[in-house]
Write a structure and sequence with these properties.
The complex is a heterodimer of chains A (243) and B (377). Chain A is α/β, with parallel strands linked by helices and 243 residues long. Chain A is built from 6 helices and 10 strands, in the order βββαββαβαααβαβββ. In chain A, helix 3 packs parallel to helix 5. Chain A starts with 10 loop residues before the first strand and ends in a 10-residue tail after the last strand. Chain B has 2 domains: 164 residues, no CATH class; 116 residues, no CATH class. In chain B, helix 2 runs antiparallel to helix 7. Classes of the chains: A alpha/beta (243), B alpha+beta (377). Chains A and B meet through helix 1, helix 2 and helix 3 of A and helix 1 and helix 8 of B. The structure holds adenosine-5'-diphosphate and magnesium ion.
């Protein structure tokens, strides 16, 4: 969807690079990269295996520390030559929702509890957390699986529960790593539609890693990586010109 | 939301099995402590049976239990005549073996004088000895029944009364005879050479040898003063009841105490290692879940709680079940097992501390888990 020209980016990378290891064994997983993602956008992060997609996602999620550059989330400078945020987990809890390749639901919690646990951590009361978890699962059309353990869910159901968990605390930024890899094309399409709906309704920035050709045409924008370098970059529809 | 509880619920079988193993281990620890308490208890019952205030024994010995003591029987009159002494009685102590219902029966024989201090204070069935010869009061642990006859030395004795829980420090059940019968028994069981010499009167004081004289003092008389007076006779030593008990604990029980103390420590250490290993493997199995938790923003407190709460639950369940287990089986031990609430609570506290300490390994692992492992494959 078009981005209003006065919008601030929710995710902003300026010259961010990541090198794993040093010297002889150094792997330049991501070379200096600029990137902005605006509210309401679903951005596809594409590229062959080993091109640095997961690394980029982990950098945005504050899971790995950049080697260079600076990172801002929701207008707050999070990294600039060092972490500028004391409690990264709190930051993730409040601002970021993760959707994993293999749903990563906690096996000992029911579908409902898997969603509620995020709310519990965010300080919701037990009843409020349960109610919102139920609403979210209903919204994602898996409400009838509320009390079911993940081992009894189908792949599509599990992924939708995982999305519900990512959305639970109303994060402005949603990061998804190969969310459709385990799904057939029909279900993959449904998941993407759902993400778009969330992006619009919650004014969230959504970054989706994929090398799944089935869904390439469903993103608002595409960013293609190769060997740790951005080789294709769609500009935001109406965003300010990129530096 | 308590994650530990839900994880336990999810792996209930494994958790309960672990708790069962732990409870057996803790049950063994508790029974070791109980056996020690029983040992102390049993060691003292014999010394307490005569209800004495004062023990007069051979000079320079710590008799009659910790060391052997032999004094002439007529010392009883001298002791009885001491100022402040109400009554006194001679006692003999000896171990004997005899055949009973086709089995070898080891007994600890106490000889006492009729109507003088030294007879067992509590008879649970039958009556005390009233005739001068061939009657016996036996402890239930001997397996002897009222009215039963038993051959000791050259004579048959009839069981006229029973006591309960009287054993020597080695665990042998106690039987009581009259002093005269027990001295006769001692003589019969001596090797022939010694017997000939004694019959000739060349022993210390003929055949009237006893091992100790016990005395009760008049109300209000300080026992220690009487003991000091008795000890002034150079061939005698005197111990108060308190000293006698302390001596027994020191000499007879001390080694057992150290032995059992060491064993208990080892068992507790083993429990700690087992708990630590179990918690470590449980944590290993959950690395991915822990990474996910970190990724969705769970603070360390939540993650540590996941492990420590399980450790504590394991400890509490293991301890409770272990205690119940021992309560159920303790009376089937061959020797007395005494379970005190204090010991059980102390063990409970120790187990809680061990559980928290043992979860350290798992907690360390959990805190080191990189949230990035939750992503990708
Ligand atoms: N933790 C790590 N340590 C060392 N090298 C890594 C690590 N993670 C990724 N890499 C390397 O970085 C490069 C990019 O990996 P990744 O970001 O996972 O690519 P993609 O997700 O596009 O497959 C690869 O060469 C990979 O081997
Ligand atoms: Mg990847």
């Amino acid at each position: 969807m078009p981005v209003p020209s006065d919008a601030h980016p929710l995710v902003e990378l300026r010259g961010v690079a990541k090198t794993y290891g040093r010297g002889e064994v150094a792997v330049h997983a991501l070379k200096a990269t600029d990137l902005r993602v605006y509210p309401g956008e679903v951005v596809g992060l594409l590229g062959p295996s080993g091109s640095g997609k997961t690394t980029l996602l982990n950098l945005v999620g504050c899971i790995v520390e950049p080697t260079e550059g600076s990172l801002s989330l929701d207008g707050q400078t999070v990294y600039d030559g060092g972490w500028r945020c004391a409690d990264l987990r709190r930051l993730r809890l409040e601002k970021i929702g993760f959707i994993f390749q293999f749903h990563n639901l906690l096996p000992f919690l029911t579908a409902g509890e898997n969603v509620a646990v995020v709310l519990d951590l965010a300080g919701y009361s037990g009843a409020a957390a349960r109610d919102r978890a139920r609403d979210l699962l209903d919204y994602l059309e898996v409400g009838h699986r509320f009390g079911t353990l993940p081992s009894r869910l189908s792949g599509g159901e599990a992924q939708r529960v995982a999305i519900a968990r990512a959305l639970a605390n109303r994060p402005r930024i949603i990061l998804a790593d190969e969310p459709t890899a385990a799904l057939d094309s029909q279900r993959a399409g449904i998941v993407l539609d759902l993400l778009r709906k969330v992006a619009v309704e919650q004014q969230a920035a959504i970054l989706v890693v994929s090398h799944d050709e089935k869904i390439f045409d469903r993103f608002d924008r595409r960013i293609v990586l190769r060997d740790g370098r951005v080789v294709e970059y769609d500009e935001p529809a109406h965003g300010p010109a990129e530096a | 939301m308590n994650l530990a509880l839900r994880d336990v619920r999810h792996n209930l079988g494994r958790f309960l099995l672990t708790c069962l193993g732990l409870s057996l281990l803790l049950g063994v620890v508790l029974s070791m402590i109980g056996i020690y308490r029983g040992l102390v208890d049993e060691a003292l019952t014999l010394a307490r049976a005569p209800g004495a205030d004062l023990w007069v024994v051979e000079s320079g010995t710590r008799g009659p239990f910790a060391e052997s003591s032999r004094i002439p029987g007529d010392e009883r009159d001298s002791v009885a005549r001491l100022a402040g002494v109400a009554e006194a009685g001679s006692l003999t102590f000896q171990s004997v073996e005899t055949a009973h219902r086709g089995r070898t029966l080891r007994l600890y024989v106490v000889g006492h004088e009729l109507n003088r201090p030294g007879a067992p204070a509590r008879i649970v069935a039958g009556r005390p000895i009233t005739r001068a010869h061939y009657e016996m009061v036996a402890d239930r642990r001997s397996g002897l029944d009222l009215g039963e006859r038993l051959r000791l030395g050259r004579n048959d004795f009839t069981v006229v009364g029973l006591t309960d829980g009287l054993v020597a420090s080695g665990g042998d059940p106690v039987v009581f005879l009259t002093l005269a019968d027990s001295q006769r028994l001692q003589f019969d069981l001596d090797p022939p050479a010694a017997r000939r010499e004694r019959a000739r009167g060349s022993g210390p004081a003929g055949t009237d040898i006893v091992n100790a004289v016990v005395a009760r003092v008049l109300p209000g008389v300080p026992v220690q003063e009487v003991a000091d007076t008795a000890a002034r006779w150079k061939h005698l030593s005197a111990l108060t009841q308190g000293q006698q008990e302390a001596l027994l604990l020191q000499s007879v029980v001390e080694k057992a105490r150290r032995q059992i103390g060491l064993f208990t420590t080892i068992l507790l250490a083993v429990s700690a290692v087992v708990i630590a290993l179990i918690l470590y493997t449980l944590t290993m199995d959950k690395v991915k879940e822990i990474a996910t938790l970190k990724l969705i923003g769970a603070p360390d407190r939540t993650i540590v709680g996941l492990i420590v709460h399980q450790a504590l639950a394991m400890g509490v369940i293991g301890w409770s079940v272990g205690t119940v287990l021992i309560l159920l089986v303790k009376d089937h031990f061959p020797r007395r097992v005494v379970l005190t609430p204090e010991d059980a609570l102390m063990l409970g506290a120790a187990v809680l501390i061990i559980c928290v300490a043992a979860s350290g390994l798992g907690v360390r692992l959990a805190l080191k888990v990189d949230p990035a492992t939750a992503l990708g494959g």
